[in-house]
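One such given next:

>
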Amino acid sequence: MAAHGCLLSIPFKPKPQFPRPIVSSETNARKITCSSITAQSQSAKQHLLSLISDQDRGLKTQNDPKKRASIIEAVDALAGLGKDTITTDGPLSATWRMLWTTEKEQLFIIEKAPFFGTQAGDVLQVIDAANGTLNNVITFPPHGAFFVRSTIEIASPQRVNFRFTSAVLRGNNWEIPLPPFGQGWFESVYLDEEIRVAKDIRGDYLIVDRAPYDWKA
């Protein structure tokens, strides 16, 4: 008897094909643009930090107009890249340590501190945007400090108004209160996770980095 094979017929179901997402040329352009801006900012930031690296927080720049002009040009270039950013929100709050400035009063204290038998340590801006406070601090290790307390209010995406409320000269186990003086504003024209660059009402410049510690009064 001949054996007959039985062929089982199974219907074929094609694998479903899902349409690939369409990425517009506008989206690609936005990614490229953002990437380019970030690269430009990092390059401009490193150039600025290189320029100030040997300036002793600004003391050497005071007598070098050419160097000062180069640094300010680099600041303006970085500010141009950050012009549309918001720098007055949460990341503004920090203990900021001065790297370089044109502020004559601070540079005078740093320079003349040895005449009073001490040395200036870190120079700080301690900002708490949420609570509206700012402390400008010059430390004299191990125990001394001169600090000026201020209140602040956010005026625009990059501008902060401030008003001095008190000042204190502190030593080891002693304090001398000083009268408050002045008000004004500063603009953080560039801010990232490492540094902040600011201009103020008097046309002075300040470059700071995030201190590796929190200063407490």
